[in-house]
Amino acid sequence: MGNSYRLQLPAGTTITAPDDATAAQLRAVTFNEAAAGTGRTITLTAPLQLVSPAYIANRNATELTLLELTAQLRAENARLRSK
Questions:
Q1: Which of 5, 4, 37, 3 is nearest to 15 (CA)?
Q2: Dihedral over Cα of 36, 40, 44, 45: its sign
Q3: Is 36 left (phi over 0), alpha (psi -120 to 50) or beta?
Q4: Burial class (CB in 10 A: 0-12, 13-18, 19+), 27
Q5: 50 φ, ψ to 5°?
Q6: Residues in a beta bridge with 41
Q7: pTM value?
Q8: Rounded to whole angstroms, how far apart are CA atoms 8 and 51?
């Protein structure tokens, strides 16, 4: 899986952004998990899931494989029922 990872930061985790712009971006993507506030410090009020792009790519590839297999099985099932 290479650089694939998935982790969870627990509620109560405090993140200190290096600058106000980064803090604003973090607040924008964690609005469901972080307390409202200002400044560079962000406190999570709910767990936050973090995944790497490689994890998402692996997950999507696995899902595509399963969908293809499901289609093949349905086609085989239909073929067998038609006999």
A1: 37
A2: negative
A3: beta
A4: middle
A5: -120, 135
A6: 16
A7: 0.64
A8: 9
What pLDDT does 37 receive? 81
Read off the pLDDT of residues 11-63 as tens digits, 9 standing for 90 and up: 999 999 999 999 999 999 998 899 888 899 999 999 999 999 999 999 999 99
Q: Which residues, at least 6 apart from 20, have a Cβ–Cβ distance to it below 8 Å? A: 39, 40
DSSP 52-71: -HHHHHHHHHHHHHHHHHHH
Residue pair 3/54 in contact (Cβ under 8 Å)? The answer is: yes
> In 3D, which of 65, 63, 79, 12 has the Cα closest to residue 42?
12
d(CA 17, CA 30): 13
